[in-house]
Amino acid sequence: MPNRDLDTLYQLPLGEFTEARNALAKTAGAKGAAIKALEKPTAAVWAVNQLYWRERRAYDKLIRTSERVRAAHAQMLKGKKIDLRTLELQHGAAVKDAAEHVRVMLARAGDPATPATMKSVVDTLQALPGGGEPGRLTKALAPIGFGAFGALMKGAASSRALAEIVTFAPPKPKPDEVAEAAKRADEVAKARLRELDARAKKTAAWLAAARAKLDRAEKIRAAAEAAFQGTVADAKRLAADVAQLEGAARALDRERSDLARR
Q1: Which residues of 165-197 are buried (b: 16+ CB within 10 A; e: fewer)?
Q2: Rounded to an integer, what distance in angstroms lies between the CA atom of residue 47 and that of residue 106?
Q3: What is d(CA 224, CA 217) in angstroms, rounded to the nearest whole number?
Q4: What is the overall mean pLDDT for the chain?
Q5: Burial group, residue 117, by CB count within 10 angstroms (0-12, 13-18, 19+)
Q6: At what angle do helices 3-11 and 17-26 cross, to 10 degrees?
Q7: Residues 167 and 117 in one domain
Q8: Residue 175 has pLDDT above 80, yes or no
Q9: Which of 64, 175, 177, 190 has the highest local Cβ count within 10 Å?
Q10: Residues 145, 194: one domain?
Q11: Is there a single domain that holds both residue 242 and residue 162?
């Protein structure tokens, strides 16, 4: 089965994947069963695959910056001093740029790109390269942290893929890449500040409205308590009047009975 047939399969709209996979399996001969068993990607993974097929420049930049960070970690484990912060800043900017491309592709495909979907997208982007053939991922990936990377090195030092990462010499960041990464970080910070300002204004408005409602409720409660106390006083006065009238009625009854006997 030519690789281009599988490549085409993973470039199709997600809704067409299953039908196209089954049709391809029928014509694949001995490889049909393996193709039929290919898992349909999630929306997040499908979109990351499309980044490889349709936005190769952003994808390659992401992979390049990821390899630099991994190589830097490898060199640090050997005791070398590396400017890791700059490399991670570049990688973070590449992840953000790639995620924006993915968000656009999801929107064009009619997917709402929910927070859960975008989290899966970002996790997978941060974990690249890895997980299988580029453009043919079937499952979301989990980012590898520094500690996990160190453990991976100790446990699989003979791995060819790991050796390629370890022997990779991180190139000196270009001035324009550093400037771009700094600019991107500044934009992210400003956007976050604007978001926080807007939320603070809304919170202040909600707080003012809540306080106004509380003041009205306190006034109503105070008025109700005053009315209740007035009602209690009236009830006591009326009880005293009733007791006095009942006493007068009994006296009249006794006097009437005495007159009747005479």
Answers
A1: bbeeebeebeeebeebbeebeeeeeeeeeeeee
A2: 6
A3: 10
A4: 83
A5: buried
A6: 160
A7: yes
A8: no
A9: 177
A10: no
A11: no
- What are the tokens at 101? 């491309």
Q: What is the pTM of this model?
A: 0.55
Report how far residue 51's alpha carbon sits from residue 53's, in angstroms, rounded to the nearest whole number: 6
Of 82-86, 124-128, 162-166, the poorest mean pLDDT is in 162-166
Q: Are 75 and 82 in contact (CB under 8 A)?
A: yes
Residues 47 and 148 in one domain: yes
Rounded CA-CA distance 129/137 in Å is 11
pLDDT higher than threshold 50 for residue 225: yes
Structure tokens, 75: 């060199």
Query: Is 70 exceeded by the pLDDT of residue 137?
Result: yes
**Six-digit token pair at 110?**
């009619």
- Of 172, 188, 217, the last residue of a domain is 172
28, 1 contact by CB (below 8 A): yes
With respect to residue 29, please indicate whether it lies within any of the assigned structural domains. Answer: no
Across 108-115, average pLDDT: 86
Task: Tell me which residue of 86, 80, 120 sits closest to 103, measured CA to CA.
Answer: 120
Contact status, residue 34 vs residue 9, Cβ threshold 8 Å: no
> DSSP readout, 187-243?
HHHHHHHHHHHHHHHHHHHHHHHHHHHHHHHHHHHHHHHHHHHHHHHHHHHHHHHHH
The verdict on 163 and 186 lying in the same domain is: no
How many domains does the chain divide into? 2
Same domain, 164 and 227: no
| Statement: residue 158 has pLDDT above 60 | no
Asked whether residue 3 is domain-assigned, the answer is no
Instruction: Tell me how crowded residue 104 is: count the other CB atoms within 10 A of its CB.
Output: 13
Task: Compute CA 55 distance to the chain's CA centroid, rounded to the nearest angstrom.
Answer: 24
pLDDT reading at 108 higher than 70: yes
Give residue 178's pLDDT: 64
